[in-house]
Structure formats: C-alpha cells, structure tokens
Amino acid sequence: MNIRIRQASAEDAAAIVKIGAATFIEAFAAFNTTEGIQDYISKNFYEEKILEELNCPGSVFFLAFDADTVIGYTKLNTGDAQTEPQGADALEIERIYVSAAYYGKAVGQLLMDTGINYARQAGYRRIWLGVWEENQRALAFYRKVGFVPFGTHVFTIGKSDQTDIMMQQILA
User: Fold this and answer.
1) Which residues cross the membrane (predicted)?
2) How far is CA 90 from CA 79, 102, 109, in A?
3) Which residues pair with 3 in a beta bridge?
4) What DSSP string describes 62-100?
5) Which residues are catalytic?
C-alpha cells in the first residue's frame, strides 16, 4: 500500500463528489433514513457545489490516494468559510472521511496530520471540528490525537437534527 496525500484542485471535483458521497453513506447510512442520507448527499455532493467549495478562498481540500485511487479526503475551512465562526486564529476540519476498506490503516491519521500541519504552517492557533455524539470510533480517534470537547452544535441529516460535539486542539 502506497498512500499519498495531495491538495485538491478544480479538476478533482468529480472525484470529491464520488468519495464524499460514498464515505458519507458508509459512515452514516446505518444510523439514518435512506431519505435523510439521499437528501444530505443531493445537497452537498454534486459537482457545482464542490467546485464552489474548491474555489472558496477560505477552504482547501486534501485527497488521500492508494496508487491512483482516491480513498479519503479532508476539507479545511478558515475565516468566513467555517461552518461556525470561531475567530481568525482558528481552522476548522469540516470533513475528514476515509473509505471503510482503509479503516485502521492510518489514512485518517495522515489526513489529520495534513490538516494540523497546514494549520501550523499558516499560523493558526487552534484547530477544531464537529463530530456526531454517537460516532464513538471518531470520538476516540480525535481524543487520541489531542482534541478536547468545547461545545456542541446541531448537524441536520434530512429531517433529523443530531448533536455534534465540537472538539478543538490548541496548537503550540
């Protein structure tokens, strides 16, 4: 296995749509209605929407590859692009997803390291994210890499409002 990470460009929009929808389904389909999942995907994973996000000055995507296959990605937001304003010194990891076939193979860790390194190099003082309160696997991972809870917010899938735990890491 030869995992590599690179920053995404507009040419990667279709690949982001594909990996975004696939990994969202893998992560949440068992816990939500089919209608809710399809509603979320139809509103968030189509090429024009991803191109808009790729072209947003406050957002950047990184893709994880195994050879030429996209196996995961992360989306980072700063400034006004953050889903909830956290100040000019904060960077948000809005999404970090890996194909289920690669769980436990350090791909999530590589994407997390990429986000943290990006934040440090850009001079951000803290990095934050929201994670569904029922996603024990992700919560354990974020705790392991040094994130601590600091609040909650609502994340809506279809007609279901779910609670996300907001977690942060102060960067030295």
Assistant:
1) none
2) 8, 29, 20
3) 66
4) EEEEETTEEEEEEEEEEGGGSSS---TTEEEEEEEEE-G
5) 142
Is the pLDDT assigned to residue 172 strictly greater than 80?
no
Vertex 159: Cα angle to 158 and 163 (nearest 5) = 90
Helix axes 13-28, 47-54, angle to 10 degrees: 110
The closest alpha carbon to 41, from 62, 63, 60, 16, belongs to 16
**Secondary structure, 3-state, 9-56:** CHHHHHHHHHHHHHHHHHHHHHHCCHHHHHHHHHHHCCHHHHHHHHCC
- Taking the C-alpha atoms of residue 66 and residue 2, their distance in angstroms, rounded to an integer, is 6
Which two tokens mark 33? 């209605």
C-alpha dihedral sign at 168, 73, 98, 121: negative
Contact, 26 vs 77, CB < 8 A? no
Q: Tens digits of per-residue pLDDT, 55-99?
A: 999 999 999 999 999 999 999 999 999 999 999 999 999 999 999
Q: Say which amino acid occupies 51.
A: L
pTM as predicted:
0.94
